[in-house]
Design a protein that fits this description.
Layout (H helix, E strand, L loop, with lengths): L2 H19 L2 H17 L3 H14 L3
Length: about 60
């Protein structure tokens, strides 16, 4: 299993646990808010690099 697959599986597991313990709207807020906050903390050059890598992986 690749590193990204492990991270994705861990994220799904945490998301399911949050759905059990918290109301659905709080879980949704956490699941969407954490990656958004992490993206906003990047420098503009890091954001450009991240977008460029994402486009390459999509085959564009």
């Amino acid at each position: 299993m690749s590193k990204n697959a492990k991270i994705a599986a861990g994220g799904v597991a945490v998301g399911l646990l949050l759905l059990i313990w918290l109301p659905w709207w709080a879980s949704l807020l956490i699941v969407l808010g954490v990656p958004t906050a992490a993206y906003l903390t990047l420098d503009p050059s890091q954001r450009r690099r991240l977008r460029r890598v994402s486009r390459k992986e999509l085959g564009r």
